[in-house]
Amino acid sequence: MVFENNTLELLKVMEINKVTNAVPFDTISTDMTFVWNRGCTMNIVVNQIVYTVCKNDIIILTNHHSIENIGFESARLIKFNLPFIYNMGDEVENSLKGTLFFNITSVPILSIAENELHVFENSWDIFCNEMKSKDNMQYDMLQSILKQIIILCARKLKKENNTTSSEREADILREFRFLVENYFVKHHDVAFYASKLNKSPKTLSNLFSSLSDRTPIDIIHERIMVHARKQIYHTTKSIKEIAYDLGYEDIQTFSRFFKNKEGLSPIQYRERGRLTSS
C-alpha cells in the first residue's frame, strides 16, 4: 500500500514473505525504513556487515544502507521519505537526530517484548486500515500513526541504550551525528561541525572522549567510508567522480584516504566486489 501526493510526500506500508523477492527491502526508494521481522530469525547483510534480527525485532535503515543479502520468512515494512514527516514536531525531529536514523556508526535494532507487542500490533492494524482510506483526513491520520511509531521506537532504544551521561551532553553528540549526516560530502574537518555547535574543536573532542570510544574525526571518516564503499561497490561511477562527489579535489588524496581505512585502493575494492558477485 502506497500513499503519495503531488507535494512529494511518500509512505509505503507492506507485508511480505519469503516468496516475495528482496526488492521491497531496497533502501534507495525512500529515506527511511522500519523492518519488523515477523518470522523466525532474519539474517541481513547491510553495508557488508551481517546482522541477526530475531522475531519481533525491528531493524531501522536509511537510504545510505545497502542491502546486499537477506534471508527471512515474513516481515512488515514501513518506508517513508523526509517530506512526509515535515512539521511533525520536536519529538519526531529529536528522535530522528538520536539513535533511530542518524546513529551512523551502527544499524539500530530494537526488540519488542511480549507485553509490548499489542501496542505495535494495534498501530500496524490502524496503519493498514488508514492506508485504504481516501478522504481528506488521510494524510493527517497517517502522519499521526507514524509519529506514534517513531516515538515508541525511540523510547525503546533510549531505554535499551541507557547511559549515565547527562542528557545535554548526549544531545550534543546526537546533534553532531545529525550534522555529519547532512554535511559529510562537503565538510571533512571537525572545526566546521564544532562551529555549528558553538563549541571549539578541543571542547568537542573532550566531550567525545568522555562519552564515546570514537573521536569526532572517526565519525566523519566512518560516514565518508560508508558512502564511498556503497558508490564503489554498487555504481559504475569512476573513482574520480566518486572522489569529487565526496568533496575531494583530486583522486590521489581520496585514494590514499580510502586505502588507509580499508586496506585496499578504491580500484582493488571494486575488483574484489566484482569477483565476489561473480
How would you describe this protein?
The model has no long low-confidence stretch (mean pLDDT 83). The chain has helices spanning 90-100, 117-131, 138-160, 167-183, 190-196, 201-211, 216-234, 239-245, 251-262, 266-277, and strands at 2-4, 10-17, 32-37, 42-46, 49-53, 57-62, 67-71, 74-80, 109-111. Helix 1 (90-100) crosses helix 4. The chain is globular. A hairpin with a 2-residue loop joins strand 4 and strand 5 (49-53). By secondary structure, the protein is an alpha+beta fold.
Protein traits:
single chain; 6-stranded antiparallel sheet; 3-stranded antiparallel sheet; 10 helices; 48% helix; 17% strand
- What does the radius of gyration come to? 20 Å
Helix % is 40-55%
Cα shape = globular
Give the amount of beta strand, in percent. 15-25%
Number of helices: 10
| Helix and strand composition category | alpha+beta
Would you identify the regions where 5 or more consecutive residues have pLDDT less than 50?
Answer: none
